[in-house]
Amino acid sequence: MDTTTQPAVSHLAGADKSAIDTPALFVDLDILEQNIARIAGACRKGGINWRPHTKGIKVPQIARMLIEGGASGITCAKLGEAEVMGAHGFSDILIANQIVGPQKIARLVALRRSCDVMVAVDSRENVSAIAEAARAAGVTIRLVIEVDMGMKRAGVAPGEACVALAQFIAKQNGVRFAGLMGWEGQTAGIVDAQEKTAAVIAAVKGIAETAEMCRNAGLAVEIVSCGGTGTYWITAAQPGITEIQAGGGVFCDVHYAKDFAVEHPYALTIMTTVTSRPTPNRIICDAGKKTMSSDASTPEPLGLPPIRTARLSAEHATIELESPSDTPRVGDRLEWVVGYSDTTVHLHEEIYATRKGRIEAVWPILGRGKIR
User: Fold this and answer.
1) Fewest CB atoms within 10 A around its CB: which of 1, 112, 273, 299?
2) Count of CB atoms within 10 A of residue 213's CB?
């Protein structure tokens, strides 16, 4: 897979990971490519498309790897992220969120001039505002209705309410009804595999049946999009779905593995330096919550004997070992598996791409800070 969209920084090309000062964010390209192939393969097996979410990736070069690996388009959470991806040549972009307010809608219309961006809606007011702005600009914007698949966040209830909104969209000039999207997030953390499968099937059935109701009402439904990293291997096999959005699984992390039973190897790590050994049981590193988040799961240090606890403060990681140890020593490196990639990647300015422990590329995280 071609990872040379942007060349490595010349003085680092081929250097060992140890050449980078800490703390630093690393992605292992061999593992990344393996995880990309795994998700893409599940989509091919299910006969559906893959539109990976890039909200936790934020790097155009990695998003390009997803397309090269079989993705048909990409998903973004924020308009600012979509603008970054559009500026780097991505055309088929779903913003899986409501874009509300005249300032954002003006930016959405401007983005439509350079790429075929589509956006989620769940209200007539928002549809009307987007349609009016699109008509004034002489463009047409694809809309997908967000369906509440049981997560109880945004979205229209499955069934007649969704059909009514789709019919409303179909009557507006400046917008085009493209289909439905949702996220069965309430099922991702179910521990029992059979119970989880049954819950996913039930959630997907609702959006698939709603799509059929729309078709029976004379509306073309091109897209039925759902399925995240915590459910994709189940969702991809369900009838009525045209694409899944799983994206974070290309990195994987402690949260996905331990809480969502995602069986992927870890591609994303944080390298730190041991800065203090106050006691034989305690290790202090130079990375805290400002480097690696612990909101969903606590990062896990690699290569240590059994630990009692690992906790983060603003600028420090504190590890308590089960038994005393002279190692690692002050100045040694200690690598951590990321706790949750979605809330870690955006903390960094760049990501170091490695293969077999050597730096192959350094990519700026251009999507960081794009919260509008």
Assistant:
1) 1
2) 17
Give me the residue label for tokens 């995880």. Answer: 35
Six-digit token string for 243: 């694409």
The CA-based angle 158-241-252, given to 5 degrees, is 105
Taking the C-alpha atoms of residue 242 and residue 114, their distance in angstroms, rounded to an integer, is 25
CA distance 304 to 163: 56
- Nearest alpha carbon to residue 334 among 254, 291, 274, 268: 274
Q: pLDDT for 263-291, tens place per residue?
A: 999 999 999 999 999 999 999 999 999 99
Q: Is the distance from CB of 59 to CB of 6 less than 8 angstroms?
A: no
156 and 166 in contact (C-beta within 8 Å)?
no
- Which residue type does 15 have? A
Q: Which amino acid is at 306?
A: P
pTM greater than the 0.70 cutoff: yes
Identify the residue whose tokens are 């990321």. Answer: 338
Tell me how far CA of residue 55 lies from CA of 27, 52, 314, 368, in angstroms: 16, 9, 23, 9
For residue 243, CA distances in Å to 171, 213, 235, 250, 344 come to 26, 19, 9, 17, 26
Over the stretch 65-110, which tens digit does the pLDDT of each residue have? 999 999 999 999 999 999 999 999 999 999 999 999 999 999 999 9
